[in-house]
Amino acid sequence: MNVADSEIKSLLEAYKTIAVYGLSHDPSKPSHYVPVFIREKGWNVLGTYPKEHSVGGFSIYRSLKEIPKENRKFIDVFRSSDKIPEIVDEILELGGTEVLWLQLGISHPEAEKKAENAGIKVVSDRCLIIEYNRFF
């Protein structure tokens, strides 16, 4: 993680669109209720999920490459830590991402370093709800 704790609030204030990698259709999962919470707090939220769904009224894309580039600047990831290297590779291949946020319990130091070396701000093992409640 290359973002200092003191920078998180300004980072969240700077980006008003969040692309959620793995936005679930199951309202009981954090990968659904965290995006709902953030949307209710004023952010534009869209997501990826391998199967089509319309739960929660989100714009859902089957893959990251289908999301318009201007909406991929801040990517919030809900995938297991072992999937992070391939997600970082995908993000770097597509370009345009400025912030990679790995949700609570998710980290992969080598992949994070690769993203950081490419100029991406990386936040790992942090929940958007918790951070929102700390700073707003």
Written account of the structure:
- With 136 residues, this protein is of the alpha/beta class.
- The chain has a single domain, classed as Rossmann fold.
- The protein contains 5 helices and 6 strands, in the order αβαβββαβαβα.
- The chain has a 6-stranded parallel β-sheet with strand order 3-2-1-4-5-6, sandwiched between helices.
- α3 packs parallel to α4.
- The model has no long low-confidence stretch (mean pLDDT 95).
Give a short synopsis of this structure.
The chain has helices at about 10-15, 30-40, 85-95, 110-115, 130-135, and strands at about 15-20, 45-50, 60, 75, 100, 120-125. The protein is an alpha/beta fold.
Draw up the topology in text.
Elements lengths: L7 H7 L2 E5 L8 H11 L3 E5 L10 E3 L12 E4 L6 H11 L4 E4 L6 H9 L3 E3 L4 H8 L1
Name of the CATH superfamily:
NAD(P)-binding Rossmann-like Domain
Shape: globular
Write down the CATH topology.
Answer: Rossmann fold
> Which structural class is indicated by helix and strand composition?
alpha/beta
| Computed Rg | 13 Å
How many separate domains make up the residues?
1
User: Quick check: average pLDDT?
Assistant: 95
Compute the number of helices: 5
Euclidean distance between termini CA atoms: 22 Å
- Strand fraction equals 15-25%
Strand order within the widest beta sheet? 3-2-1-4-5-6
Largest sheet: 6 strands, parallel
Helix content: 25-40%
| Element-level helix/strand string | HEHEEEHEHEH
Using DSSP, what is the number of strands?
6
Judging by the overall fold, what is the CATH architecture? 3-Layer(aba) Sandwich
User: What is the highest CATH level, the class?
Assistant: Alpha Beta
Q: Residue ranges: pLDDT <50 for 5 or more in a row?
A: none
